[in-house]
Amino acid sequence: MRVGDVTGSDVLVRVEGLHKRFGRLEVLRGVDMALHQGEVVVIFGRSGSGKSTLLRCVNFLEDPTEGTVEVAGYRLGGGHRTRRKREQIRRLRLHVGMVFQQFNLFPQLTALDNVMCGPMCLPGAEDKDVRRRALGLLDRVGLADKADEHPIRLSGGQQQRVAIARALAMQPEVMLFDEPTSALDPELTGEVLAVMKSLATEMHMPMLVVTHEMGFAREVADRMVFFHEGVILEEGPPQQVFGATRHPETRTFLDAVL
Amino acid sequence: MWVGVFVALGLLFFLARFDNAWILDNVGYIAGGLQFTLFIALGGIVLAVLLATLGALARLSANPVAYGVAGFYVSFFRGTPLIVQMFLLYLALPQIRTNLVDRYPGIPAELTDPLLLTATAAGTIALGLNYGAYMTEIFRAGIQSVAAGQGEAADALGMTYLQKMRKVILPQAMRVIIPPTGNEFIAMMKDTALVSFLGVSVFTAEMFRRSQLVGKADFKNLEAYVVVAGLYWALTVVFTFFQARLERRLASGYVRVPTAVGRTRGGAAV
Questions:
Q1: Is the ipTM here above 0.85?
Q2: Do B158 and A94 touch (CB under 8 A)?
Q3: What does A70-136 look like in DSSP terms, one character per residue?
Q4: What's the confidence (pLDDT) of residue B109?
Q5: Cβ contact A61–B152 (<8 Å)
Q6: Mutation choice for A interface testing from B145, B157, B270 by most A CBs within 10 A
Q7: pTM recorded for the entire structure
Q8: Between A and B, how many residue pairs show a Cβ–Cβ distance under 8 A?
Q9: Do A212 and A182 form a contact (C-beta atoms < 8 A)?
């Protein structure tokens, strides 16, 4: 159901009582969190701690087993997908951009067509307008000269920047980044992180970022959330998480990655 | 090697008193059946592709009815001989019509007349149904070969199911689907010869029927069947050439060095 801005608050994403089970494996064991207007939240934790699953539940690439997700005025839970619910999920996704670890660009399309194909699926889309905006976005991520190349001819960092432009083309209210630099060679992570940083600082794009890039977190995050075995163990602003770590698990993890 | 085989065959035909003059007289008539052979094959493959697409999507769908109907379709049309299916459509369907009309005299003719198929139509539809069943499995495998992340990316962009299939999944599946589908089409061009068993009228006879007609009439079976075999062969050679071109074209976006035909904007043509 679309509940609108009931509280008049600036909450863009609200996750309540979220559980996710894959068979007998419980990956999320009760997660509550919110993302506010203009906020950058970095989610970190060990592999298998549930951070990616949380992100994928936010735009219903995974169905929550229990609990609800509220995005852009749509408040939905898991369970059977009726035709009506599938449509609600689709509409919710129109407000959420997602960037994947493996880029997932469409290999049969050029960079420009990748960026255009989302908006062109919207009713009433005009090729001319969409093309102009898509070229603008490619320019924004520094790839205007690669518009006519197919993804295979681009480096990993370039592919991921096209993927960011593709997500932005939908004019989302929130961006989700699922380990956007984990599949990249180390020398290519910088260009992707720079684009993400400019989104945060120049466009004030609200973002949920799952990443191990602690430098990025320290510099860009408003808040950091530490996942451990399917629950949020610790959260706070970077200075606090790095400087005054509360939980020994967090400390152990930070010592391992820093 | 091939040259040697041809020389040996030529010698054999010469010794068997191969009648070249008769061939020159009749090759035009036999080849005149090419248009019907091609018409049947093209109609059959279009129908088969349509059915295979629907069948594969149904086999992959969560809808139990669609899944069940598609399963029945594939099982029946793979499980019975093509020639039997042709006779079912050509000779069995009209009987259903007769019995229906007997029983319900008021039934409008527009509803029942479609059950009366010409031999060519029955053959084409039977080919489409039969090959569609085999190709359902090809299409299903092709769709499943597309990485899961591609569908997720389309979902995340808020595409509808149809948009996702049309713009993202099927164009990529085509790369996997086209080569075996080309083989099916080649097989189908040859199976059009089966339509001759339905007793097609002389005016719309495809190549094999024509070769039978003139071969039997003049006792020139050797020449007639050698000619028609050569025509089928030439047809498949030509088609194989175009298939190879199409495959190269579909490879655009998968090779780092663009080929001459591979540089088309938008990649796959569906």
A1: yes
A2: yes
A3: EETTEEEE-S---HHHHHHHHHHHTTEEEE-TT----TTS-HHHHHHHHHHTSTT--HHHHHHHHHH
A4: 77
A5: yes
A6: B157
A7: 0.80
A8: 78
A9: yes
